[in-house]
Design brief:
Length: 148
């Protein structure tokens, strides 16, 4: 559903505009509702899910046993911090202040379409991510099967 990299601006009130290419999809297929939450795997980024996709993710995360510390951390980062937003008449959504602070999301940011969700990164964190290459010893078995 979502793919590509878009440079965006977060305004002084903490709002970002949903790229125009996605606004119809967000309105039609997402019920005009999106959910911000932390990325539990990469510090410095947040995820933005269509509401229906988020509900499936949330339900899976909440089924994890809270006996394990990593499960509790995932539940806190994903479900505990989740914030439902709806684009305004200009297609803007408010990025939660706590997430802006925790991830150093300031004026310049990058929105990545990642299939069923978006990733939102500060410009600097995004540059650091794309400058990292994947070393041969880091390749997963699935990646070894890719014909790239």
């Amino acid at each position: 559903m979502f793919q590509g990299e878009t440079a965006i601006t977060i305004d002084d009130k903490g709002r970002m505009a949903v790229p125009t290419a996605y606004r119809d999809v967000v309105a039609r297929e997402c019920g005009n509702r999106l959910v911000f939450t932390y990325n539990p795997y990469d510090a410095g980024g947040v995820w933005l899910f269509p509401h229906a996709v988020w509900e499936r993710v949330r339900d899976k995360v909440l089924k994890l046993s809270s006996v394990h510390d990593s499960n509790r951390r995932a539940q806190r980062l994903l479900v505990g911090a989740a914030a439902v937003v709806e684009p305004d008449a200009h297609g803007r959504v408010l990025v939660p202040a706590s997430m802006r602070t925790a991830c150093n999301l300031e004026k310049k940011a990058v929105l990545l379409g990642m299939g069923e969700k978006f990733e939102l990164w500060s410009e600097q964190a995004h540059l650091a991510q794309i400058r990292r290459t994947i070393a041969p010893d880091e390749l997963s078995p699935e990646m070894l099967e890719l014909d790239l």
